[in-house]
Amino acid sequence: MKGNSLIIQSGGPTCVINSSLYGIIKEAKKHPNNIEGIFGALNGIEGLLNNEIIDLRKENEQELIYLLNTPGAVLGTGRHKLNNDYNNEEYNKILSQCEKYNIRYIYIIGGNDSMDTGNKLYQFFTLKHYDCKVIGVPKTIDNDLVNTDHTPGYGSALKYIANTFQEIENDICCYQNGKVTIVEVMGRDAGWLTAGSKLSSINGNGPDLIYLPECPFDIEDFLMKVKNIYEQKHYVLIAISEGIRNKDGQYIHTLINSGNQTTDSFGHINLGGAASVLANIIQSKFNFPVRSIELSLPQRCASHISSLTDIEEAQEVGKHAVIKSLNKDINGSMINITRAQHNDYIIGYQWVSLSSVANKVKTFPKEWIVNNCDIDRGFINYALPLIQENNIIYQENGLPRYAKLKKEKVIL
Amino acid sequence: MKGNSLIIQSGGPTCVINSSLYGIIKEAKKHPNNIEGIFGALNGIEGLLNNEIIDLRKENEQELIYLLNTPGAVLGTGRHKLNNDYNNEEYNKILSQCEKYNIRYIYIIGGNDSMDTGNKLYQFFTLKHYDCKVIGVPKTIDNDLVNTDHTPGYGSALKYIANTFQEIENDICCYQNGKVTIVEVMGRDAGWLTAGSKLSSINGNGPDLIYLPECPFDIEDFLMKVKNIYEQKHYVLIAISEGIRNKDGQYIHTLINSGNQTTDSFGHINLGGAASVLANIIQSKFNFPVRSIELSLPQRCASHISSLTDIEEAQEVGKHAVIKSLNKDINGSMINITRAQHNDYIIGYQWVSLSSVANKVKTFPKEWIVNNCDIDRGFINYALPLIQENNIIYQENGLPRYAKLKKEKVIL
After folding, report:
1. Exposure pattern of B269-300 as b/e (b: 16+ CB <10 Å)?
2. Interface predicted TM-score (ipTM) of this complex, two decimals
3. What's the predicted TM-score (pTM) here?
4. Is A265 an interface residue toward B (CB < 8 Å)?
């Protein structure tokens, strides 16, 4: 099929979502007999609906290379959720827009919500006999996509987290009377990122306690452990997921701080703050010096410390999305990463159906959680290859040089 | 004078306090006719009082090189303040300990409090006719020492801050309806670090608003500016110092949040949280989506992004401390950094009296503050040379390899 391609970035940004974009563009340019226009939708699927579509062939080659160390989503991202009913007005608009722009290849870079969007597009196009390949390109720092060994974006977040924990440990251990330091890591439902703090134990001591959302958080047991450790070594380093919950499934933050509970503009409870709540409890109960730290956005945008392995894999999933979309048999699929059962780190790129990935969450394996507050060596073996090699940082004036795209609109 | 040397690390750690330690050790080894023992006091001056003194000549050479990318203070740090009365018991203990260990050279790596300690030791030794050189080696991320162009530690903190602001901006700008993002930077009394956020404007847009403690913070004016900017561009990036105060000198955090005001174990008001307080006000007043981020400890320990210029200068001040202490005329002095008035960045190492530095604070120049909420180009010209060149990171397993010292106690 000959026609134009449309690339969509969707969901939370990562350090390498733009590397996948680069991988797609670079490969697409090699197939001009199939892929004519290489278009980008601004701010997710909404860009398609609103004619906010740019021509990526017009971008300067060097600027595109800078995408490899540019954090954030350069096309802009969105969280628009498509209706479950294919009779909904919106789908007709999508179809007419795709016809108008002659879109025959759609590449969606995103997480499980985005794969749901991709799956709906695929199902709808099939229903309407509209010939368009829809291919998902996995992306999330959370590593919570099923049917893939890991997700691009996770390795760089891990590298940031592991480095930061090692640095924080070295900072807090140098006082005679140090602090109980609680570091809050992203992850509402899956502890993959928080577990990454354990990597700091390879060349350092690592956190004393690590709590993931996969295990009920027992505050009494936690306080007892903190007290014992502090009395022994005069500082404690603790990693917690933002999403830790008690045995009744209530978020620790909302449970304790219910008077100050806030919600976002969509009514979702604002997480974050669990570390600060726990720090206050420790201080008032034991009068130990405490500090809470939220790693916050740098977890997903600290591109200066991206893993080169992650950057390369993010490009590869983009490249394979293009290659496999040109194979007639593949549609409604997400490119996944498979790993050979082998001591060396050998991976391959295959595909799975978007429907098998959409809206599902891969939680952290229970067998890698030790006594509810530590992480097993098995995880280290799994995760360590993902953070290898340092990003080649493009700089000007000692500061990162990010891609500056012209973003010329497609004019029909 | 022939005798032993004692190195002390004091005050808050930085990324390069251990580089100064390395610079001292390396240079001291070149002068065995003057400097016999190269000792380190554990946890500041208290190590001397408590016989917690290690023999740095026994450390492995390669491990010492790893000091160049090891954050925290490997000797341990302290905040012990010496008495103002030289008749105090403590001083006799210090003298007897120095005599016992035959300490003839003391190098104190620290900030203005530590220079006060150094100055008191120098004054006391002079009073007692005890022949011992006391030399200060400047160190602080805060850059608030007088009589020096800048302080080792500042450049690396700046580099972290500038990179992080650039990354955060790229993350938050990619949503159609972004957040008002308030980033809180260290600095109670001086805005040097917060001003560093402006460096992110060189290759990016930089923060929309920057507030330092040097200017009274007007909350009504702030809210009006935030509203205008958000309505124009749908996200706002704000940098604030933790120490911003209103025109009456009250900390914004304590003023607004007085019900929850907490103090540390010494009764100091816990700062931090100003960003969170301001974010809550913006959300409740305008219902804009908001996020507050405290950069917290990584500002002073993110050694993976240290400035090589800073590492080298930190070594040099250590080296010059040794060289100049062997010059009979210099005592009770701190090594300082001077800069030639020249387009190129050319610096020299001189010295000033400890008494001229002790307990003083160099605030951010008013002439570089624009309209209370922006930073002048003059600061960029001043600061940019300090963040140049990237740290050569020593790694194992893709993670930093820090120095592991044996810390063998000196046995007399």
Report:
1. ebbbbbbbbbbbbbbeeeebbbbbbbbbbbbb
2. 0.95
3. 0.96
4. yes
